[in-house]
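Below is a filled-in request sheet from our internal design queue. Each sheet records the structural input a requester submitted and the sequence that came back. We keep these sheets so that new team members can see what a complete request looks like end to end.

REQUESTER: design group, bay 2
PRIORITY: normal
MODE: inverse folding
CHAIN LENGTH: 253
BACKBONE (tokenized):
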């Protein structure tokens, strides 16, 4: 596998920092075999790859199971009468988590996409916060390698799985070519990879592509031409409002 120049590698985790977002396509085309990867974009390069629920309850490790179950049951109860007429039954807890993920619920799921450019959009779509770092990040995880490792010892601590719900209720998931991962609360994806692929410096399991956040506007304009924007990735009124607000910001320089 031809690796990108200046790519650091340790324990299955590869990292490269781009001088310009325009180099992103070269990384994707030269390094990544798309069918085997899932992608995720994050505004802050130092954020852990952990789901929203983990950030809240990991400080109480003895109550994680209790808090998780109670939280899910609260959502299920609050959802009564709010899923439309004759909604289809949801077969598993993960189906319920997936439903809540894009409706404001903190969950044990982490969003991924099969499109590197959708991930790039999500890395840059939000205006900078007061704590903004100099780089955002796009992650690429090799699903086949991870699933192979899980198959070796499916009952090992820090379990990990990918989920692709088949429910028709989540139009955003479809628009974003989305899927989810789930691992034990308190285990972020990068740490899981480093622990399970310790000593690996040849084969890429998790790639971190750092992109200058200063090029946010230029990148979003290019993605807009590719028909990747809030309106297409959020096919509802939320997406229309977010796109309109972003275009207003651009018009003001």
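RETURNED SEQUENCE:
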């Amino acid at each position: 596998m031809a690796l990108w120049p200046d790519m650091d590698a340790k324990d299955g985790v590869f990292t490269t920092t781009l001088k310009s977002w325009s180099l992103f396509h070269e990384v994707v085309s030269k390094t990544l075999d798309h069918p085997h990867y899932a992608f995720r974009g994050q505004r802050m390069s130092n954020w852990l790859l952990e789901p929203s629920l983990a950030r809240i309850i990991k400080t109480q490790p003895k109550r994680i199971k209790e808090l998780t179950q109670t939280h899910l049951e609260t959502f299920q109860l609050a959802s009564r009468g709010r899923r439309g007429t004759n909604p289809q039954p949801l077969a598993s807890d993960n189906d319920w988590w997936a439903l809540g993920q894009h409706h404001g619920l903190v969950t044990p799921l982490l969003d991924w996409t099969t499109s590197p450019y959708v991930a790039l959009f999500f890395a840059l779509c939000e205006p900078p916060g007061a704590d903004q770092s100099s780089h955002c990040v796009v992650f690429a995880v090799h699903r086949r390698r991870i699933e192979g490792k899980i198959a070796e010892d499916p009952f090992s601590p820090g379990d990990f799985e990918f989920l692709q719900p088949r429910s028709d209720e989540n139009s955003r998931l479809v628009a974003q070519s989305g899927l989810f991962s789930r691992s034990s609360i308190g285990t972020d994806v990068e740490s899981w990879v480093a622990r399970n692929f310790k000593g690996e410096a040849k084969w890429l399991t998790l790639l971190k592509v750092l992109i200058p956040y200063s090029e946010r506007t230029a990148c979003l304009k290019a993605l807009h031409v590719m028909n990747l924007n809030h309106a297409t990735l959020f096919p509802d009124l939320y997406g229309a409002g977010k796109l309109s607000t972003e275009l207003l910001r651009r018009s003001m320089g």
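SHEET NOTES:
- The chain has eleven helices and eight strands.
- Residues 4 and 27 are 6 Å apart (CA to CA).
FILED BY: M.R.
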